[in-house]
Design a protein that fits this description.
This protein has 373 residues and is of the alpha/beta class. It is 62% helix and 9% strand. It has 13 helices and 6 strands. It has a 4-stranded mixed sheet, with helices on both faces. Strands 4-5 form a two-stranded antiparallel sheet. Strand 1, helix 3 (58-69) and strand 2 (73-75) form a beta-alpha-beta unit. Helix 2 (19-41) packs parallel to helix 8 (222-250). The radius of gyration is 30 Å and the shape is elongated. The two termini are 24 Å apart.
C-alpha cells in the first residue's frame, strides 16, 4: 500500500504539470457547467414582440409604454410590418401585435348604462396578434395575455365585473430551478470525463513514452499499477467535483436538497465505476490511436442516452428500457434523486446495485486484459 500511495502521489504531481490532462479532467466539465448554467439559470418567461401602431391615438401610445415597462415582454423596434414578419420567420420574434386603426378611441358602449341611465364611453378598437403556424404556442400565449389585459381595461372603464374570478396565491414552497435538475447531469458528465477521457488516454500515453516498460522492470506488479492509477484519478475526481459544486453553489445558486454525506458516498461509488472503465480501456489499448475510438464508442452513447443532457422520458419506451442499463444512467439518476428529492441510500439502492454490478465487471476485465505495452 505504501508503494501504491507513493505511485499515486507521484502521478498526481505529474498530472498538474500536464495542461492537456488538466483541461479534460477539470476545465472541460467547468466549461459545460458555465454553458448549461448560463442557459438554465434564468427561468423567467419573456416574449420578444413587435408592436405595429396603426392607430396613433394617445391610448395606443400609453399601451405601448406599459408594454415596454412590463417584465413579461421585450418590445423590439421594427421599421414596418414586413420587417417584423421577416424577423419572426428568422425566429427573432415570438409575436407581432398590431393596433388597428381606431384602437383606443373613446366610443359609447352599447347595452351598459350608468346608475343615472347615461351611456358609458370607453376606449374601443381591435388588436391583432400574429403568430407563426409552424410554432403557434408563443403567439397564442401572447394573445391570451393581451386578452386578459384588455378584459381588465374593459372592467375598469365600464365597471362590469365578471361573476367568476380567478385568484392566484403562492404555495409557500420553494421550487427547484431547471439548473438544479441539469446540475446532476453535469456532475455525471464530469465523472464520465474523468474516467473515460482522462484516465483512458493517460495509460496509453505512458505506454507510448516507455514509462510502463521501466516500471515493469521493478517489483511493482500490474495490480498495484492499476490500483495506484485508480487512486490518483479518484483524488483528481474529488477535486474536480468539489470545484464544480463550489461554482454551482456560489455562481448559479444550486439548491442542494439532499444530505451531503449520502451524496459523497454515492458519488464515490460512481467515481470508482468510471475509473474502472478508464482502467479497462486504457490498460487494454496499446496506444492513443486505439484508445481514442474506444473512448468515443463507450462515452458518446452514455453522454446522450443516460439522461445527462436530455431527459430520458422523452425517448421511446423501448429505448428507455435499454438505456436504464447504461453505466452512466444510474449515476445521473442517483445524483438527481439525492440532490433534488433528498433521497437516502436506501432509496437509491437500485442505482447503487447497478453501479456495483458494472464496477465488478469493469475491474475484473481491467485486471484481466491489462497490457504493459
Amino acid at each position: 500500500m505504501r508503494a501504491i500511495g507513493t505511485y499515486a502521489a507521484t502521478q498526481i504531481r505529474a498530472f498538474f504539470r500536464d495542461p492537456v490532462a488538466m483541461f479534460f479532467v477539470i476545465a472541460l466539465p467547468l466549461i459545460f457547467l458555465v454553458v448549461f448554467g448560463s442557459i438554465f439559470r434564468n427561468t423567467e418567461t419573456n416574449f420578444r414582440v413587435a408592436v405595429i401602431d396603426r392607430a396613433g391615438t394617445e391610448f395606443a401610445q400609453q399601451f405601448q409604454d406599459q408594454m415596454h415597462d412590463a417584465d413579461l415582454f421585450t418590445v423590439i423596434d421594427v421599421e414596418s410590418y414586413d420587417d417584423a414578419k421577416t424577423q419572426m420567420e428568422r425566429g427573432q420574434l415570438d409575436s407581432i401585435i398590431e393596433l388597428t386603426s381606431g384602437f383606443g378611441e373613446i366610443a359609447p358602449v352599447s347595452g351598459i348604462l350608468t346608475s343615472a341611465g347615461e351611456t358609458i364611453h370607453a376606449p374601443s378598437g381591435e388588436m391583432i396578434v400574429f403568430y407563426q403556424e409552424s410554432s403557434p404556442q408563443a403567439g397564442q400565449t401572447v394573445a391570451a395575455v393581451m386578452r386578459s389585459i384588455t378584459d381588465g381595461i374593459n372592467r375598469e372603464t365600464t365597471g362590469f365585473v365578471d361573476p367568476l374570478t380567478v385568484q392566484q396565491e403562492p404555495t409557500a414552497t420553494a421550487g427547484l430551478t431547471q439548473f438544479d435538475y441539469t446540475f446532476s447531469g453535469l456532475l455525471g458528465f464530469s465523472i464520465l470525463s474523468l474516467g473515460v477521457f482522462g484516465l483512458a488516454n493517460a495509460l496509453p500515453a505512458a505506454k507510448k513514452q516507455g514509462a510502463l516498460r521501466r516500471i515493469r522492470a521493478t517489483p511493482f506488479q500490474a495490480p498495484k499499477l492499476l490500483i495506484g492509477t485508480g487512486l490518483q484519478f479518484f483524488v483528481l475526481g474529488v477535486i474536480s467535483l468539489v470545484v464544480m459544486i463550489i461554482v454551482g453553489l456560489t455562481v448559479f445558486g444550486f439548491d442542494m436538497r439532499g444530505n451531503w454525506l449520502t451524496f459523497a458516498v454515492f458519488v464515490s461509488a460512481s467515481l470508482l465505476l468510471m475509473i474502472g472503465f478508464g482502467l479497462l480501456v486504457g490498460g487494454w489499448a496499446k496506444n492513443e490511436n486505439q484508445a481514442a475510438p474506444l473512448t468515443n464508442i463507450v462515452a458518446f452513447p452514455m453522454m446522450f442516452l443516460s439522461g445527462a443532457f436530455f431527459p430520458r422520458f422523452l425517448m421511446p419506451e423501448w429505448l428507455q428500457s435499454v438505456t436504464t442499463w447504461l453505466p452512466l444512467t444510474p449515476v445521473v439518476d442517483g445524483i438527481r434523486f439525492i440532490t433534488t428529492e433528498n433521497a437516502s441510500l436506501v432509496t437509491v439502492a437500485p442505482q447503487l446495485g447497478l453501479i456495483a454490478g458494472w464496477s465488478v465487471v469493469m475491474y475484473l476485465l481491467a485486471f484481466r486484459l491489462f497490457r504493459w505495452e
